[in-house]
Task: inverse folding
């Protein structure tokens, strides 16, 4: 039965007179507006449930909109050159007439770069002319037609297309012009208004989950003071459970994350540590835990807490196995197993095992030698000061947690950006500096984080980010194709007498075109099996047995090796093989220098680790003719690297600097930081406790900076 809601007299009017009949609501309803809350139960607070999710964004917390920044392909282009590519589907003569009609009316030239057009014109192009009618003259070559129309503008045009779009293909095409922003109905909190009405100590659940873990812990700890004694009694248990979990997350070094952080945006190390925190909470014993490099992305200061957590798990009666390169973790271990000797074909045997001391006493073990200090990464005798008077200055950066940060990067140096996780390093370097520089140098469509000014770009000719993303998405990409070694290899095979006799052209040895490749797998050597709801699976092609070429192509041999044999050589094997061929040799040499001698030159991109992909990219840069005016940016290049490999990587980075370039590295590894010419330390803490420039200067100077956590550790490394 529906309950009728009636308004009742204002409390000020006193009690309801006896004898009069009144109806009251048994629900949480407003007698004035009729707004009604459903039963308050857990599912109301879940954005995964239709009972709780914001109906506008369906619980995603974001909405898509057409973004002017995406609509403009390049501010430096003119309209004629296609600065706004939205109208590309229009017949070109119609588009030309439309633009020249506009140019006529507003008195501008279609050949002027978009950024130089008056603001009023730019606004009309994007948002339309509104009420203003514009005389339009169209001709189809035979007849002329004159009309006065309001001009629609690119954004309204796209919105109309979006409403009319029938196919998903069409929508995908339009999505190119969209960006995301917080949903305006739920302000990004993902829940419906009813859920957000329920508040505890003035905060609703969305606000609580947007607190950082540190703030949330503090909030839950002081919450009881706002409760009545009865409420305190009821809340006691649940509050303890919540606080315990927040403490576990703090102990694994994740105090800077917000509870609402989307799992997809977490780094591998972060998600691993979250799973670890949930395990501590379970209090199980007799479990075997296996962790793969949990220290990735952790500042030295948080590493200690992580190790304590692992020891705690052990003390509960569990066994913890950790695959790790971190020195401190290794030294704390009860038992070490050192695998090697080298990587790839040079590995696969146990070199040493026992307590850390026993491993240190094994001369064969490279790990042991680094642990004992017999081998170490040396501190350079002198720090470079860079090119006199040349520096890049970024001022007033405010992206994410950055608090108006000003930095100076001396050019011609090896500069490290340091600080605890979540301190703001990536926001500053990748999201602001890199994107802003790309926009200014290359005219790339990016939306950099907000900043006040950026100076000094005239001293560099390009900026290159060398990240750990794959060198290609398909098995057809490999180190040989990526570094450009494959073209001269193919040419070499074409020049062989047998190829000439048969009239083979370079395409014969390509796996991108028909002719010489295996057609069953189209040169992949692998067949892709698409799995529903699971990642694709690759199996070796039956026809060519993974060799990628057909029989005729494989008959062409140089020194008894077919092109498939060459592609399956390791870099080390291929180097003497192509010793007399500089174009091939130089590329292979660069791969050797970055410590990738063990990978196969035709190894498919999909099987290279992030660290390997990054080093292949470095090798490509090394083998290019350097202009000496490049700024290289690397985000934690030591991830997954052994000390021995780090020392090789440093040699490569230092060489780029020797050539006059600037190398800017975001890094936690102290062995790298201590070798820098210049350090920019961001922090001091994570999240809202970070975002400031804590110190800048040589490692020696930063080590003396009182507030710097990095400096504190650095002082120890410099002393040893
Ligand atoms: Zn919403
Ligand atoms: Zn095949």
Result:
């Amino acid at each position: 039965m529906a309950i009728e809601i009636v308004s009742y007299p204002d409390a000020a009017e006193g009690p309801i007179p006896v004898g009069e009949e009144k109806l009251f609501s048994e629900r949480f309803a407003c007698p004035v507006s009729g707004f009604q809350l459903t039963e308050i139960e857990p599912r109301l607070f879940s954005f995964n449930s239709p009972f709780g999710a914001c109906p506008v964004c369906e619980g995603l917390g974001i909405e898509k909109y057409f973004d002017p920044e995406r609509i403009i392909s390049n501010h430096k282009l003119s309209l004629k050159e296609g600065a706004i590519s939205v109208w590309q589907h229009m017949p070109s003569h119609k588009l030309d007439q439309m633009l020249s009609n506009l140019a006529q009316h507003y008195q501008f030239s279609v050949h002027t770069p978009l950024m130089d057009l008056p603001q009023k014109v730019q606004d009309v192009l994007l948002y339309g002319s509104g009420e203003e009618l514009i005389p339009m003259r169209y001709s189809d070559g035979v007849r002329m037609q004159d009309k006065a129309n309001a001009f629609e503008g690119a954004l309204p045009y796209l919105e109309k297309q979006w409403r009319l779009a029938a196919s998903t293909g069409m929508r995908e095409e339009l999505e190119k012009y969209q960006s995301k922003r917080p949903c305006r109905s739920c302000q990004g909190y993902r829940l419906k208004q009813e859920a957000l009405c329920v508040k505890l100590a003035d905060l609703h659940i969305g606000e609580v989950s947007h607190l950082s873990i540190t703030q949330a812990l503090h909030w839950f700890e002081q919450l009881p003071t706002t409760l009545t004694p009865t409420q305190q009694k009821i809340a006691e248990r649940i509050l303890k459970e919540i606080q315990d979990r927040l403490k576990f997350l703090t102990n694994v070094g994740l105090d800077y994350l917000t509870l609402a952080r989307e799992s997809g945006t977490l780094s591998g190390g972060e998600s691993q540590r979250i799973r670890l925190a949930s395990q501590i909470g379970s209090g199980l014993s007799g479990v075997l835990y296996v962790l793969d490099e949990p220290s990735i992305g952790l500042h030295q200061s948080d590493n200690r807490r992580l190790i304590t957590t692992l020891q705690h798990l052990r003390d509960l009666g569990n066994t913890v196995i950790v695959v790790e390169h971190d020195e401190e973790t290794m030294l704390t271990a009860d038992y070490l197993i050192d695998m090697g000797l080298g990587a790839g074909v040079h590995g696969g045997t146990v070199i040493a095992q026992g307590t850390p001391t026993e491993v240190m006493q094994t001369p064969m073990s490279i790990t042991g030698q680094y642990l004992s200090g017999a081998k170490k990464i040396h501190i350079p005798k002198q720090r470079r000061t860079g090119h006199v008077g040349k520096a890049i200055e970024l001022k007033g950066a405010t992206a994410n947690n950055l608090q108006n940060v000003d930095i100076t990067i001396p050019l011609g140096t090896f500069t490290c950006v340091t600080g605890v996780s979540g301190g703001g390093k990536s926001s500053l370097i990748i999201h602001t500096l890199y994107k802003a520089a790309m926009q200014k140098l290359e005219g790339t469509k990016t939306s950099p984080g907000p900043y006040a000014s950026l100076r000094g770009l005239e001293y560099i000719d390009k900026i290159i980010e060398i990240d750990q993303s794959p060198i290609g998405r398909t098995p057809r990409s490999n180190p040989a194709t990526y570094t450009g070694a494959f073209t001269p290899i193919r040419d070499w095979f074409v020049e062989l007498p047998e190829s000439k006799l048969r009239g083979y052209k370079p395409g014969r040895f390509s796996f991108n075109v028909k002719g010489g490749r295996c057609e069953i797998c189209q040169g992949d050597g692998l067949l892709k099996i698409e799995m529903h709801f699971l990642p694709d699976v690759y199996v070796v092609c039956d026809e060519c047995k993974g060799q990628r070429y057909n029989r005729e192509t494989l008959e062409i041999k140089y020194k008894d090796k077919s092109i498939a044999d060459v592609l399956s050589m390791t870099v080390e094997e291929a180097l003497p093989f192509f010793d007399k061929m500089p174009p091939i040799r130089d590329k292979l040499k660069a791969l050797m220098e970055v410590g990738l001698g063990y990978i196969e030159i035709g190894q498919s991109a999909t099987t290279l680790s992030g660290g390997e992909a990054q080093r292949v990219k470095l090798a490509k840069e090394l083998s290019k003719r350097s202009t000496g005016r490049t700024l290289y940016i690397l985000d934690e290049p030591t991830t997954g690297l052994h000390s021995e490999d780090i020392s090789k990587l440093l040699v490569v980075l230092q060489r780029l600097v020797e050539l006059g370039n600037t190398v800017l590295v975001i890094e936690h590894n102290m062995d790298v930081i201590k070798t820098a010419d210049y350090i920019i330390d961001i922090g001091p803490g994570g999240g809202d406790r970070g975002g400031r420039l804590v110190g800048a200067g040589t490692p020696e100077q930063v080590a003396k900076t009182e507030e710097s956590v990095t400096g504190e550790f650095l002082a120890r490394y410099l002393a040893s």
